[in-house]
């Protein structure tokens, strides 16, 4: 049986007659104390699960952070946890390279990468023949990004000629020996990423429509 000290009864006396005050004070008194260290441990253990969207992951992080008493640092802690816990290693490297990364920017970058991956898979599934290339991504310095596609078969002169003709109208996309170079440019890393992804989508669309093949 719990015993209330006179000092603990003071709020009830000052709010005597007001049921809302009485209920609020009773809740404060009987509610178990929150273990902040444990709450932060649970938050720190969060990782994006397989198949979990970035929006669902962020929602889960916000719910966990709400009980951690981070105060004004809450957004920064969520941002850092996105970088540490995101499942895609490629997007993690991009986030680490981003200067002045904010929570909003981190979420937008993850969403963009997630959407690109969805579109890539949809385009790959819509192609009846097996893909002849695989993407190898690399981000260059000074706000430019290039992507090389390794050919699965040895280069052929006739194929290279067709590739040059097919890619003649696409700026920033060049066939080099048995590779294809895609360069994204912009004043910022984000603009370069966006420009690169747009060219990549255009190239994949051209590949899907082409009847001459790439091997």
TrEMBL record:
Residues of the region (Disordered) are 141-161
Which residue ranges have biased composition labelled Polar residues? 145-157
Q: Could you identify this protein by its name?
A: Retrotransposon gag domain-containing protein
Tell me the organism.
Aldrovandia affinis
């Amino acid at each position: 049986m719990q015993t209330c000290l006179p000092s603990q009864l003071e709020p009830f006396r000052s709010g005597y007659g007001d049921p809302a005050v009485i209920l609020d004070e009773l809740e404060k008194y009987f509610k178990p104390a929150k273990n902040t260290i444990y709450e932060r441990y649970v938050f720190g253990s969060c990782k994006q699960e397989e198949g979990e969207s970035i929006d669902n992951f962020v929602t889960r992080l916000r719910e966990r952070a709400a009980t951690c008493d981070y105060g004004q640092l809450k957004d920064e802690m969520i941002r850092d946890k996105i970088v540490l816990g995101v499942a895609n290693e490629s997007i993690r490297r991009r986030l680490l390279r981003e200067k002045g990364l904010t929570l909003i920017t981190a979420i937008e970058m993850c969403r963009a990468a997630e959407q690109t991956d969805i579109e890539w898979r949809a385009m790959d599934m819509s192609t009846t023949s097996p893909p002849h290339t695989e993407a190898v991504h690399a981000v260059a310095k000074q706000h430019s990004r290039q992507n090389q596609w390794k050919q699965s078969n040895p280069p052929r002169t006739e194929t290279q000629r067709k590739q040059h003709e097919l890619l003649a109208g696409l700026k920033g996309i060049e066939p080099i020996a048995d590779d294809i170079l895609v360069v994204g440019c912009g004043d910022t890393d984000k603009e370069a990423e966006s420009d690169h992804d747009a060219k990549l989508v255009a190239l994949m669309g051209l590949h899907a429509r082409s009847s001459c093949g790439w091997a």
